[in-house]
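To: structure desk
From: M.T.
Subject: fold request, one chain
Message: Could you run this one when you get a chance? Sequence is below, nothing fancy, just the single chain.
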Amino acid sequence: MPKYYIWTIGCQMNKAESERLGSYLEQHGYQVTATADEAELIILNSCVVRQSAEDRVINKLNALKTLKRSRPDLTLAVTGCLVNPEISQLGQSFPHVDYFFRPGEYPPWMEKAGSGTTLPRHPSPATFVPIIQGCNNFCSYCIVPYRRGRERSRPVEEIAGEVKELVRCGVKEITLLGQNVDAYGHDLLEKPDLADLLYELNSVGGLARIRFLTNHPKDMNPRLIEAVANLDKVCEQVSLPVQSGSDEILKLMRRGYTVGNYRQLIAEIRDKIPGVALSTDVIVGFPSETEGQFQETFGLLSALKFDTVHVAAYSPRPGTIAARKFEDNIPLAEKRGRLGKIERLQARIAAEINARLLGKTVEVLVEGEKRGKWQGRTRAGKLVFFSDSSDHLRQLVQVKIEKTSPWALRGRIENSKPS
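Reply: Done. Structure tokens follow.
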């Protein structure tokens, strides 16, 4: 039986697509292997949203040259956001790669196995479910719309059927995925929205939790906030990237909202969903960002106090509006300095937020083991570790928190609900 190996980098969408690729290959008679050296087929699922990610992809491709040279019969394929419409140029740059195929697609040299969506054969207790591909927003810094195309939603019935099948396979929690989940359904005939989908999935028996990401501040509507507040299976956690605390920079980014709009949206979310955990994304060092504009971002994060902040230094993506129109004129050392300031700020804020859980009992969905400890997440997305000799995989357990940090919680189990 031939063996396959998939190397994945990047967003949750890439991870979900790699799971489905693995199932697809197993339907074709392949068996997974943990190392590239043992594989007859290697697929790299790539990301180029940041320069650091693209560098890792290129380095991995270059490292595989020797393996390909020693084993010419090895099939090497690349998918993900490195793959642009100019596949012939990619072939010239990486002649040792046999195939390139677009993100979200299946290997073009194989016949489709069966019909419909290929589901993960070995899903984890918490599994990703893509619901919409592509993005219509064209933020000036972002390469995604050029690589994944325009927004394309999956029908409600198809998603619900997939979720029911995943639950039959032991899945307890799903995370609905899209580059912009708030745009879900606008391209479908019936015009359902994300709230409609949440109401439909909330009725799936055996499903314990529902999450969704990523949201866009200009597209998130009150009906969605009400759905999160009212539906018992939808977790009290919202990811809402702000990207900058400066109106001038937001305009250059083509984000479509102001800092005032964003603050109002956060206030509405916190008013409707008490105790909600909020996360955001920030880019520092965008072209022309002054120290004062960076301080506006720093001040916004200080004031709003997010549970999680994902911060990245700007890097130009060839083909994007920003790469064409703006000079990358912030020195790398300055970008790194600004990034470090936000990371230190967020570590303090997260430590304060998580410390409030000390001595509290929280519900945890156990997703696996790591270094001899069970691990899982709360409804708010907090990572929790605990030790216990019993098998708690896929269980909802009550854990009393005994130690906190900015990044995780540790406690002892009190009881569990039957899975």
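Reply (cont.): The longest strand covers residues 361-370. Let me know if you need anything else for the meeting.
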